[in-house]
Amino acid sequence: MNVQIDESWQDLLKSEFEKPYFKELTSFVKDEYSKHICYPDANQIFEAFNLCKFNDLKVVIIGQDPYHGEGQAHGLCFSVNDGIAHPPSLINIFKEIKTDLNIEIPESGNLERWAKQGVLLLNATLTVKAHEAGSHQKMGWEQFTDAVISIISEKKENVVFLLWGGFAKKKGAKINKAKHCLLESGHPSPLSANRGYWFGNKHFSKVNEYLKSKNLASINW
Predict the structure, then answer these.
(1) Residue 180 in contact with residue 160, Cβ under 8 Å?
(2) Residue 203 zone, left/alpha/beta (φ > 0; ψ -120 to 50; rest)
(3) 25-47 tens-digit pLDDT
């Protein structure tokens, strides 16, 4: 695994890349990609960081695992490549945006346009074996992404963290609430959304209200 990551993150994460756990993780990922079909493509593992430079970062959305179906994952949580059907959670995200901001549901589920506006679409685990959900969990990725969240919390201010579901809330437990805005709700998956834990959270308008209050440009969702 070659760490192809934007230079704005390189210095911040350099010490993490040199730790024993990350070297073991690198060996594991290289081995998995050489023996099995894995997602996303090897050159897109760090795509979330490459499209959202550290200096531009304003919002963090925390996901869990990359999609494990063919052609779906491309390194951004909840996002799929152009031409791929919207997965259920993404459908519910777009439905909430439509209700909240009256923005029509887009044809493409590719969220690169969010990333380029300063939204870090961060999965807790950055790789997965095809058709095996969670297959690369507990191999070191969670330690790495915990470090990323800690660095953002420490080095930035006025970042909005969107914590959807119990997993994301635990992941965001150490964020400095005095410096940042944390918005929590249920997960957009049908199981959670249909029980009333997702729809109506108005997170997308709340993000923009907060950013405007800090004299920062809002996100064009």
Answers:
(1) yes
(2) alpha
(3) 999 999 999 999 999 999 999 99
Catalytic residue among 6, 31, 41, 65: 65
Which of 127, 134, 171, 165 has its CA nearest to residue 153?
171
Q: What is the pLDDT of residues 41-66, one digit of tens each?
A: 999 999 999 999 999 999 999 999 99
> How many CA atoms lie less than 13 Å away from 79 in the CB half-sphere?
24
H helices present in 72-193, as ranges: 88-101, 112-115, 141-155, 165-171, 190-193
Whether the bond between 40 and the residue before it is cis, its omega within 30 degrees of 0, is yes
Name the stretches of the chain with pLDDT < 50.
none
Could you give the angle at which helices 88-101 and 203-213 cross, rounded to 10 degrees?
A: 60
Active-site annotation holds for 56: no
d(CA 213, CA 207): 10
Single pTM value for the model: 0.96
Q: Where are the beta strands (DSSP E) in the chain?
A: 38-39, 59-63, 119-123, 128-129, 160-164, 181-185
